[in-house]
What we know:
The complex is a heterodimer of chains A (about 110) and B (about 120).
Chain A: E1 9-13, E2 18-23, E3 32-38, E4 45-50, E5 55-56, E6 61-64, E7 70-75, E8 84-91, E9 103-108
Parallel strand pairs in A: 1-9
Antiparallel strand pairs in A: 2-7, 3-4, 3-8, 5-6, 6-7, 8-9
Chain B: E1 4-7, E2 10-13, E3 18-25, E4 31-37, E5 44-50, E6 53-57, E7 64-70, E8 73-79, E9 87-94, E10 105-106, E11 110-114
Parallel strand pairs in B: 2-11
Antiparallel strand pairs in B: 1-3, 3-8, 4-5, 4-9, 5-6, 7-8, 9-10, 9-11
Amino acid sequence: DAKTTQPNSMESNEEEPVHLPCNHSTISGTDYIHWYRQLPSQGPEYVIHGLTSNVNNRMASLAIAEDRKSSTLILHRATLRDAAVYYCILRQAGTALIFGKGTTLSVSS
Amino acid sequence: ETGVTQTPRHLVMGMTNKKSLKCEQHLGHNAMYWYKQSAKKPLELMFVYSLEERVENNSVPSRFSPECPNSSHLFLHLHTLQPEDSALYLCASSQTLAARTDTQYFGPGTRLTVL
């Protein structure tokens, strides 16, 4: 399985932007980069995904490096409800999502 | 509302009991999954079903037995479990297994405690 590396934890203040990094130096040309998050006591939920171009949706933005060896999930204005574990996952065809440890994001008011 | 429901939400069972976890998806998806999440550990993929056929079984002990009677329902039958099997069991579904763009939708999980 293609691997990703994320910091164990990050902290942010409310209303500030948050940049969550992910390294995936062994990514193959056809792997999609997916981000999920898991709020306390809940199942994971989809955040965003992309292949090569940067992507935006109502939850976040995904910035993908030109060589695709890294990506960054951007939360434009963190809220207390964004405190969660964020997972960066490489999605390959024909397989389920394989989760790593993710980044635990803490948000302070 | 994620469209994936799981029952029961909490379950306490003894090591000699037999119980079943149920998952139902209302999204018209063709792939369903069981994951296990132990305390302080990442999610572990247990079983994968595509079009009601099991396509992946990640070295899960035989005391866990999945069943997928149709594309909307997935069960996990439990028998003679061990205390270390206590965990959050999560069900998920996606439109297909094949597409790299498909999103997996997760249920809220069943919190299992084995005494």
